[in-house]
Backbone:
């Protein structure tokens, strides 16, 4: 087997391989013998298993040649990969060159290679380590949010106002024609919740029980249904009830609604503090990780393989599609998004994956099972059955791999910060939780 590699620029390479003609003859001969001995091979004028070889070759020569060349290309390419002659990203695009009987056969394989990444020292680089703590005010605000979740609604004899709940029937139409999903009866809606399209809830404010009204609204241009996006619709509204809210008192009975039987309201406050502190700790780690990863990317510019970007885009699309089906049901068609929507995030993820792999290699970082166990147990505390959750993580390869990745990322961050200048800055819980991660 003779090979030649051509640099096509960037990460693209073209491999030309020449194989001995004898390999083709040998493989084709084996294929024809398999066909001849196949009792299921039937050809007009011949009994099963009695078809002459020359007849078989006349009938199947082209398909056998195509199959043999495909197998030889893949087999020889994988041999080169296993021998580390080449290190491709993903699977190549094969192109069989014209074949001349009796002469060596050649093919081309176009593929990408991994970029060369040389990790530079980050000593002296400056990072902010954000600190924060959960305060009584944060706990009070969470309690108030829980209180609103337990609201009781009482019928009132007045016009509907913001924060009221209304029970309504409605029928929507576009250009005089009703559309699927545009009608409901005895529908409970909290005004000001922004759970409906813009203008819908505002149009109900001021109506009383028994009132009927037509409301004209316009669906957002980015609405999930292409048939309705950007279109004007008329909703015929009938208000059946207007209800005001009655919030429960914050006492020991309220705590029982959340499973706190013995310690009462103070016990509930402790539970809230534990939960908020756990979320805060995870968010602070994520913010520091984002800082370090951003700096790594800035200091190590390199070309990212398109093959891996495309694979990551497909993975992101699948995630979005699964979330869409979960939210809107399997019957609603998923609105396909263009590649450009996913490309920046996909490119960042792939680049980080390649970069972190080199950091791990450079500093000889190894999996830390104690850290993995600690992360799993930390997540398990959010559930009523933590021991079962821990066992579930260790049974599920995908979940366990996610935690192992997080554990390794934490080790990378710690290693980078060892030689860096780190300044602590204090923020409030609300400021920290208002930030969003990138990776």
Residues:
């Amino acid at each position: 087997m003779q090979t030649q590699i051509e640099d096509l620029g960037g990460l693209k390479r073209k491999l030309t391989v020449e194989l001995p003609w004898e390999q083709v003859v040998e493989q084709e001969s084996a294929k024809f013998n398999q066909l001849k001995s196949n009792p299921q091979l039937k050809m007009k004028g011949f009994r099963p298993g009695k078809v002459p070889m020359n007849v078989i070759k006349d009938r199947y020569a082209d398909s056998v040649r195509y199959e043999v060349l495909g197998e030889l290309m893949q087999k020889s390419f994988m041999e080169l990969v296993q021998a580390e002659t080449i290190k491709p990203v993903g699977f190549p695009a094969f192109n069989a060159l014209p074949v001349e009987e009796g002469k060596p056969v050649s093919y081309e394989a176009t593929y990408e290679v991994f970029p060369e990444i040389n990790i530079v020292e980050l000593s002296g680089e400056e990072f902010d380590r954000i600190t924060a703590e959960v305060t009584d005010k944060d706990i009070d605000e969470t309690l108030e949010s829980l209180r609103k979740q337990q609201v009781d609604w009482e019928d009132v004899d007045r016009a509907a106002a913001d924060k009221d709940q209304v029970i309504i029937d409605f029928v929507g139409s576009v250009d005089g024609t009703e559309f699927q999903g545009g009608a409901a009866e005895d529908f409970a809606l909290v005004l000001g919740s922004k759970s409906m399209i813009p203008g819908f809830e505002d149009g109900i404010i001021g109506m009383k029980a028994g009132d009927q009204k037509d409301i004209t609204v316009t669906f957002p241009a980015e609405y999930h249904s292409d048939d309705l996006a950007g279109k004007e619709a008329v909703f015929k509204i009938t208000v059946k009830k207007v209800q005001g809210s009655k919030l429960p008192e914050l006492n020991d009975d309220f705590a029982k609604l959340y499973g706190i039987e013995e310690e009462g309201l103070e016990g509930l406050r402790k539970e809230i503090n534990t939960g908020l502190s756990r979320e805060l700790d995870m968010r602070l780690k994520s913010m520091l990780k984002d800082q370090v990863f951003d700096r790594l990317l800035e200091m190590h510019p390199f070309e990212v393989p398109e093959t891996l970007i495309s694979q990551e885009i497909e993975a992101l699309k699948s995630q979005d599609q699964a979330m869409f089906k979960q939210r809107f049901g399997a019957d609603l068609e998923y609105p396909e998004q263009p590649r450009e929507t996913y490309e920046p995030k996909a490119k960042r993820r792939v680049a980080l994956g390649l970069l972190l792999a080199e950091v791990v290699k450079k500093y000889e970082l190894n999996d830390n099972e104690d850290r993995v166990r600690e992360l799993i147990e930390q997540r398990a505390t959010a559930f009523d059955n933590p021991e079962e959750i821990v066992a579930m993580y260790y049974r599920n390869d995908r979940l366990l791999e996610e935690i192992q990745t997080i554990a390794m990322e934490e080790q990378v961050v710690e290693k980078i910060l060892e030689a860096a200048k780190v300044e602590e800055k204090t923020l409030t819980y609300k400021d920290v939780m208002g930030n969003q991660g990138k990776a």
Notes: The chain has three domains: 2-113, 126-137+264-433, 151-246. The domain at 151-246 is CATH 3.10.50.40 (Chitinase A; domain 3).
